[in-house]
Amino acid sequence: MVSPSGTRLLHHLAHLYGVQTVYSDTSHHRRRASVGALLAVLKSLGAPLVTLNDVPSAWRQRRQELWQRPLEPVAVAWAGEPPVTKVRLPAAAADAVLAAHLTLENGEQRPYQWRGADMPVVGTEEIEGTQYVAKQLPLPDGLSWGYHRLTLELTGSCRETLIIVAPHKAYLPLEERDNHIWGVFLPLYALQTQRSWGSGDFSTLEEMTVWCAKIGGRVAATLPLLPTFLGDWAFEPSPYLPVSQRLWNEFYLDITRVPELNKCPAAQARLASLPFQDEIETLRHLAFVDYRRSMALKRQILEKLCQCLFAESSDRLKALMHFAGANPLVEEYARFRATGEKQGAAWRSWPQRPGEGIPKEGDYNEGDRRYHLYVQWLAQQQFQTLSETARSKEIRLYLDLPLGVHPDGFDTWRERAVFAQDVSTGAPPDAVFTKGQNWRFPPLHPEKTREHGYGYFIAYLRHHLRHAGILRIDHVMGLHRLFWIPHGLETSHGVYVRYTAEELYAILALESHRYKTTIVGENLGTVPPVVRPSMARHGINSMYVLHYELASNPPKALRPPPASSLASLNTHDIPPFAAFWQGLDIKQRLDVGILDRVGAQREGRCRQAAKKALVRFLQEKGFELNNVDAYSVLKACLAFLSSSQARVVLVNLEDLWLETHPQNIPGTEDEYPNWRRKARYNFEDFCQIPPVVDTLRMIDYLRKQVGNGD
């Protein structure tokens, strides 16, 4: 039996580590985290405890730890505001002269001094018999945007803090022509042409980008394009469980555009062989993407091309070697993937040497290392070509930044110091997912990430921002808090852990300006009250999804999309419009067990009321509705979005031919073929379908009218 005083102290300790011990679910019942969950999460955060008996000493140690830390690892200085931070000192030394030096991002160094007696006191605390004082430390004024390091010289030691000087708001285009635009969306794996090898590739996305520009669009959007596990020992095609956040997926390489193909007879012969061509034809006609077979087919050719390149000296080989030297991360990745293939197991099961450090010769097959180095080089080149084509057509690539990475992936291996151990990320129970959700990937450790200067976060942001005109931040609530689920416990037993949101917003704002990229935050579903005001304050665009906005009251069936929003009918996690209109999604959720029969009937009644309200609302607003079939209502809804002040309107191309099957049903794995379904039509076919082209031209006309102020 746990005593009330023991539980209270546990909750105080949790607060010191940023753990939220009480939260509300969608039914507004206050839920208190279990003792077991709190102990497990606190342990993963580094608290020195195993049982409740350890809590008193862990609490004392944590308080002492925090007050003995003179400077926080990170401080934010918002542009235009007096830059200040807090310094904690023993009372006996609080009035002494403090010496420091500042290292600017450009390498310049500047010395500084402060008189402790002149700094205002902002807090005091007695810890284990020692009195501590917190004082306000004025940071150097007039610093340029960037990352600067302040080193405070104390008796016997130096303490350092990273100063992030950032604009208050993320980048937003200033020209009116960039603020009422529209674009198209389709997952790249689903986007096929007549020449495809069973899925889309970078060239296919480039073709869609050019076509979109021709009909007036300014945005081409898809799902994450990061590398995933597609081999025999590890297979996970979900774009939201990538192996790494800092590389591109070789699965999307267009083999026909690889320069080595023209000089490699072995690859040409294999490619031209009848069995190979038959396999391509088979993959092309499958209803679903077969990642394993498609990747195996591409790898046959890519390995031969790699062997040809390494067979003799050439300018291309020199370019590859230069790329490897300039990008040591890619060399590490190649060794990691090659070692995984040799071991046939996740990195936690490897022998100690390759598991703990960078694998060396003998830990992997050299041919596999060269292969992974080569395909990453090709992927970087083809993605760069795609990016340059988009810019030349004034198209913004809309890239999607996943929340996490695969637990057995490269990033969790290389950056293990900043990932929390023995926990997964997910979501608590709600009205839709009554048992909660476990997304299976490990969360970033909030304190260790700060101590490492957010280096990993900045690196994977930049990887996307180099090419993205618009970057979507998946589950933007994660800037504030994440739901941690201890391994071995039910999903519903997780707890929320807080992150230092101000620092993450500062990095987003700074980096978005450096790359001139608009940031969109995925703020759908149950969102803490602080999130949306924070997004607005920092210039993060919200998502307006008609599916979630629909109400059953006709005069208020839809609120207008905000000017700072990206508006769409749905997302990849939501049924296509035709399925929604026909109620097919309710049956699908019933079939896979997400809804029971009573819930399905209740949802059906609500859907009918919402549909009636939507039709009446659209008619009253003057949008043409000849009848109430799916296509007529679809066009009217798109006209409503396109006539709004939304910054961007995004159109799911599958809606335009009334697709009824979703790309993903959240909460399912084996029950539904998520991330595999191809588009019903090839690119060459759907870009000629009159309802598709006519609807997009209508959207283009309405968007231009909004932009002209009509």
Characterise this structure.
With 710 residues, this protein is an alpha/beta fold. The chain has three domains: 4-66, no CATH class; 81-166, Sandwich (Immunoglobulin-like); 183-248 and 380-707, Alpha-Beta Barrel (TIM Barrel), CATH 3.20.20. 39% of the residues lie in helices and 18% in strands. The chain has 24 helices and 25 strands. The strands form six sheets. Strands 22-19-16-13-12-25-24-23 form an eight-stranded parallel sheet. Strands 1-21-20-17-18 form a five-stranded antiparallel sheet. It has a five-stranded mixed sheet with strand order 4-11-10-6-7. Strand 23, helix 17 (546-549) and strand 24 (565-568) form a beta-alpha-beta unit. The longest helix has 27 residues, at 366-392. It starts with a helix and ends with a helix. The model has no long low-confidence stretch (mean pLDDT 94).
Quick overview of this protein structure:
By secondary structure, the chain is of the alpha/beta class. It is about 40% helix and about 20% strand. The longest helix has 27 residues, at about 365-390.
- Ranges where pLDDT stays below 50 over 5 or more residues in a row are none
Query: If classified by CATH, what would the architecture of the largest domain be?
Result: Alpha-Beta Barrel
Q: So what's the overall shape?
A: globular
Please give the domain count: 3
CATH superfamily of the largest domain: Glycosidases
Question: How does the major sheet shape up?
Answer: 8 strands, parallel
Overall pLDDT confidence: 94
Straight-line N-to-C gap: 69 Å
In the CATH hierarchy, what is the class of the largest domain?
Alpha Beta
Count of helix runs:
24
* Widest sheet: strand ordering: 22-19-16-13-12-25-24-23
Instruction: Tell me roughly what share of residues is in helical segments.
Output: 25-40%
CATH topology of the largest domain: TIM Barrel
Structure classification: alpha/beta
